[in-house]
């Protein structure tokens, strides 16, 4: 009863959480210096930071940003499809 | 609760007051309340007590639950060694500036989109809302390049407070929040003001703004917390020690300072936000619900 009715909100929360977690930056930077063992703690955001501001590769960093945008847009598209089905 | 609240929930009142139902109810309540208190206050407790431990005690495994020999001196050390007064002042300065700029420009934008309705207003609004779809992290690089060499004017904004203020003002979420609130102000009030010969500027100042006090409070709180907790952006655009914000400052000092002093500095940095939250608790809650989608 309750769970099917809140399905949309649950999907929205899941999507927002995915979008937020994909942008994780401070935690890997502080806890694992961004890398960890064999880059196991590197987040996309940290990779962008590393490319753009340490390896002097702003173009690469911007490209990574675009890739991230596309991936996140994919998650949003899933959410939009879920919403559309309901109507 | 023992008394009948009048609302019927899934579990009836009589089920709750009987033997087994009652036991389950109270155990669940206690477990949930205690669990959440622990989850939310635990880190704060750990931070405040961690700052009171000696350098040796904070490094030991397993960690001690209470500081054996509390050392308030750590807080004084943190204040002096990390030059926290300067860092806090910087952050406060950026926050106040962000609030003022947002109140002036976002209100103006929302007012014109909601009440003055210029040509293509809806297109502009749609474009603004479109920017909400782009994650902040994606924009870091283009935004940084823009700050390095501002188009048309060709000024370098590094270490200038405008590097924080300008991106903060272009905040589609707050403009949308304000617009939604202005939309709810009846058109009749606007018409009455017009009949009395008020200009649109005068209407904004004497009618709309006094009515919008709650939402202006919400926007200000959002602006202050956003500046206070931002890390990556101020780290990039405020490279010199004199212009650092408090979060970046603590991070830079973290390498060469004893852990307990760093934690003490974090406690001091967190105090203003905690105070702001306690004072404006109700506004923050209402702000969270005004902007959100109601299921």
TrEMBL record, chain B:
- Check the record and name the InterPro entries matching this protein: MetI-like, MetI-like_sf
How does the UniProt record describe the way this protein sits in the membrane?
Answer: Multi-pass membrane protein
What parts of the sequence cross the membrane?
23-46, 92-111, 123-142, 162-182, 203-228, 261-280
Q: Does the keyword Transport apply?
A: yes
Tell me the keywords, alphabetical order: Cell membrane, Membrane, Transmembrane, Transmembrane helix, Transport
Tell me yes or no: is Transport among this UniProt entry's keywords. Answer: yes
Sorted alphabetically, which Pfam families does this protein's record hold? BPD_transp_1
Please give the family membership noted in the entry: Belongs to the binding-protein-dependent transport system permease family.
Q: Which organism is it from?
A: Micromonospora parastrephiae
The molecule here is called: Carbohydrate ABC transporter permease
Domain of life, per UniProt, equals Bacteria
Domain ABC transmembrane type-1, chain residue ranges per copy = 88-280
Where does it localize? Cell membrane
Mostly located where? membrane
């Amino acid at each position: 009863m309750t769970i099917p009715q809140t399905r949309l909100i649950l999907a929205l929360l899941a999507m927002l959480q995915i979008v937020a977690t994909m942008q994780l930056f401070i935690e890997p930077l502080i806890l694992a210096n961004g890398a960890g063992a064999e880059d196991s703690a590197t987040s996309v955001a940290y990779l962008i930071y590393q490319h753009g501001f340490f390896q002097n590769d702003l173009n690469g960093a911007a490209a990574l940003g675009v890739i991230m945008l596309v991936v996140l847009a994919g998650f949003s598209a899933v959410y939009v499809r879920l919403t559309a089905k309901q109507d | 609760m023992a008394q009948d609240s009048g609302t019927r929930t899934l579990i009836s009142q009589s089920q709750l007051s009987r033997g087994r139902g009652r036991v389950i109810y109270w155990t669940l309540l206690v477990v949930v309340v205690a669990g959440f208190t622990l989850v939310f206050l635990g880190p704060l407790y750990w931070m405040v007590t961690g700052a009171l431990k000696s350098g040796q005690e904070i490094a030991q495994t397993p960690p001690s639950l209470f500081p054996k020999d509390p050392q308030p001196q750590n807080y004084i050390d943190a204040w002096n060694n990390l030059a926290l007064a300067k860092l806090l002042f910087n952050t406060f300065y950026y926050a106040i500036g962000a609030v003022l700029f947002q109140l002036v420009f976002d209100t103006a934008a929302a007012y014109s989109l909601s009440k003055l309705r210029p040509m293509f207003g809806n297109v502009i609004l749609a474009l603004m809302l479109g920017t909400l779809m782009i994650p902040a992290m994606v924009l870091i690089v283009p935004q940084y390049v823009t700050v390095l060499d501002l188009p048309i004017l060709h000024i370098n904004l590094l270490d200038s407070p405008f590097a924080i203020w300008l991106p903060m003002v272009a905040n589609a979420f707050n403009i949308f929040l304000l617009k939604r609130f202005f939309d709810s102000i009846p058109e009749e009030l606007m018409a009455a003001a017009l009949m009395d010969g008020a200009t649109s500027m005068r209407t904004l100042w004497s009618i709309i703004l006094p009515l919008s006090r709650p939402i202006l409070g919400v926007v200000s709180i959002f602006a202050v917390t956003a500046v206070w907790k931002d890390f990556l952006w101020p780290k990039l655009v405020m490279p010199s020690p004199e212009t650092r914000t408090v979060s970046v400052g603590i991070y830079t000092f973290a390498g060469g300072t004893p852990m307990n002093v760093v934690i003490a500095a974090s406690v001091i940095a967190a105090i203003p936000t905690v105070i702001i939250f306690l004072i404006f608790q109700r506004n923050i809650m209402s702000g969270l619900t005004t902007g959100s989608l109601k299921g």
